[in-house]
Design brief:
The model has no long low-confidence stretch (mean pLDDT 95). The strands form three sheets. The protein has a 17-stranded mixed beta sheet that branches. A twelve-stranded antiparallel beta sheet has the order 5-6-9-8-7-10-16-13-14-15-12-11, with no helix packed on it. Strands 25-26 form a two-stranded antiparallel sheet. A hairpin with a 3-residue loop joins strand 8 and strand 9. Helix content is 4%, strand content 44%. The protein is globular. The chain has three helices and 31 strands. By secondary structure, the chain is mainly beta.
Length: 517
């Protein structure tokens, strides 16, 4: 049978994955590290400058023919970028690389970093989830947990922990017998439910406190200053009557949480009698100020290039460090993120050589966030002592958030490419175009005021939040056009805040329907 020649490869035949290295330019191996690399699929919309850029220098000796001689390869610049839609699942892991930090997770049997513990059985009579050794440790009475991946519907969803041991988690809700749950089944803490009448709201000047009279020591919930929680639930009994929504923690004490930002307009003191108030937490990722918590991750990015006669062709960015990130939120569109990496080397492999070994996992499906329906909050305001801060504008037509790690390649004699990479200053900035409504926004620019901005996106009972506690504004020149509303373009330049970070992300595995209202 004739073998037809192949003259081109279509872009739809390509694919993109990444794997984390154990050392710079070195993937894990089963023999040395006890595990092979895991190649995680990505969903690129477009690419930017992906690959290796070779520099050659021609020889040009003085000669009678006045001709150059063939040059030599002198350098290699390896880098790559791509854009993808923002979902809850396709960004969280890679975000750690851009933040040079580990995700701070609440208790889960399937942590993003570290070894998980399988959920091995479910017993209806005792309302018990059985786990591998250590799987039940860390779950405490009152925890709200989300159960996912179980084969029987009743065993999935939000449950309330009654008690736990090292290998069991007992819940309050009705569940069904399941002798062998799927390997992907998990339990993860998403919040806490206070006992009847034990949580109340008090005011400390213009700041707001969530007070516990019994049952919970807030210092034991794994919360940190600068983190956000959601107060309330979908049932009336699970929230306060006059106070509820997102709130940023400023102070944590055993008996109270103090908030310096709240999402409801008029905080008031409230006893909370007869209430079983729900609190919902997220997984926190921030740039760390403690050097011991700053972690540089290096990756290999694999782009497959279709098939030749012998198999899958591919190219790799080796020793890649996350450099620049831009989150784009234009009006009436999807939210997208542009991600770029600087690498030490670029490698190409034909089908005979094949792709590098390891386990390849597919995309975790998730809906993209959009800018019309999925923004629960966008607030920019001057930093003050009032938790219900007054915004500088009511609506925005577009916004961006940028991260730049200022990564540069380290060159040396005898090395083609880079032998290492250095990270510079962690810079956070962006832009925002707002509909002008008050001269205070212009004055905030002129006064070089301390400003803060936070954005919360909620979709399908899950959410992503980012918070910049301290920034300065630039630009601010009003845009006035005939028959159009006045707009004010603003540039943002962030700085280290009172919490010790410049930028904080939060990923909420579960939020009630009330969080979307």
């Amino acid at each position: 049978m004739a073998v037809c020649p192949k003259y081109k490869i279509d872009s739809n035949a390509t694919g993109l994955r990444y794997a984390e290295e154990v050392c710079l330019k070195q993937l894990p191996t089963l023999a040395a590290d006890g595990f092979d690399p895991t190649w995680i699929a990505l969903e690129p919309n477009t690419y930017s400058d992906f690959g290796g850029n070779i520099t050659t220098v021609a020889r040009n000796p003085i000669n009678q023919s006045r001709q150059r001689k063939k040059g030599v390869v002198t350098d290699l610049e390896a880098s790559g970028g791509f854009q993808q839609d923002l979902t809850l699942f396709n960004f969280r892991d890679l975000a750690q690389g851009f933040m040079f930090a580990d995700l701070r997770e609440k208790k889960t049997t399937a942590p993003n970093n570290g070894t998980g513990q399988a959920v091995t059985a479910v017993d209806a009579a005792t309302k018990t989830y059985t786990t591998a050794a250590g799987g039940g440790t860390g779950f405490v009475a009152g925890h709200l947990v989300v159960a996912e991946g179980f084969g029987i519907t009743a065993n999935n969803g939000v449950k309330t922990v009654v008690s736990s041991t090292g290998t069991t988690v007992v819940v309050n809700e009705v569940i069904a017998d399941e002798a062998a749950p799927p390997a992907a089944a998990l339990l993860a803490v998403v919040g806490y439910q206070g006992a009847v009448g034990t949580l109340s709201i008090a005011l400390n000047g213009d700041l707001v406190r969530l007070v516990s009279t019994a049952g919970v020591d807030f210092t034991t919930l794994g919360l940190i200053p600068g983190e956000w929680i959601f107060i309330g639930g979908d049932a009336t009994v699970n929230g306060f009557d006059d106070n509820g929504g997102f709130a940023r923690i400023s102070v944590i004490a055993a008996g109270y949480l103090e908030f310096d930002k709240v999402d409801w307009p008029t905080p008031v003191a409230e006893a909370g009698a007869a209430k079983l108030v729900n609190l919902y937490f997220g997984q926190v990722l921030k740039n760390e100020s403690d050097p011991a918590l700053i972690k540089r991750r290096t990756y290999q990015l694999e782009r497959t290039l279709g098939e030749d006669a012998n198999g899958t062709m591919s190219e790799y960015l080796v020793g890649a460090v996350a450099n620049e990130l831009t989150l784009n939120a234009p009006q009436a569109e999807k939210v997208t993120v542009d991600l770029t990496f600087v690498a030490c080397d670029h490698q190409a492999r034909n089908g005979l050589t094949g792709v590098k070994p390891g386990t390849r996992v597919g995309v975790v499906e998730g809906d993209a966030f959009n800018t019309s329906n999925d923004f629960a909050r966008i607030k920019m305001a001057v930093v003050g002592d009032d938790a219900a801060i007054m915004p500088l504008f009511a609506f925005a037509s577009d916004l961006t958030l940028t991260i730049n790690n200022n990564v540069s390649a380290n060159k040396a004699v005898g090395v083609l490419g880079a032998f290492d990479l250095s990270a510079g200053t962690f810079e956070v900035g962006g832009s925002l175009t707002a509909y002008f409504a008050s001269a205070e926004s212009v004055q905030a620019v002129r006064n070089n005021a301390d400003v803060t901005v936070d954005v919360i996106m909620v979709k399908n009972n899950q959410g992503i939040l980012y918070d910049v506690p301290l920034l300065a504004l630039g630009n601010g020149r009003l845009n006035v056009e005939q028959d159009q509303p006045i707009t004010i373009p603003l540039e943002t330049n962030a700085a280290e805040s009172k919490f010790g970070h410049t930028l904080l992300w939060q990923f909420f595995p579960y939020l009630p329907n009330a969080a979307s209202l």
